[in-house]
Amino acid sequence: MNILIFKTSVTQPRQVNRVQTLLTAMPNVADWNFDLEDCDNILRVVAADLSPRQIESTLRKAGIGCEELEY
């Protein structure tokens, strides 16, 4: 399993719900969470065999800004 970390444009719970729908539809995602108190509105995703580009692409198609952060 890998932990992927992203800066997002998500700021409200209703947006988190929309992301939840997208991420739970991805079979390789084991867990995920947001830190909306962080200035970058961090999304952490625990996944196996999933590239950061796949997460970014999926969220961007839904109108959500998403950019992988290096750690």
UniProtKB/TrEMBL annotation:
<protein>
    <recommendedName>
        <fullName>Copper chaperone CopZ</fullName>
    </recommendedName>
</protein>
<dbReference type="GO" id="GO:0046872">
    <property type="term" value="F:metal ion binding"/>
</dbReference>
<dbReference type="InterPro" id="IPR036163">
    <property type="entry name" value="HMA_dom_sf"/>
</dbReference>
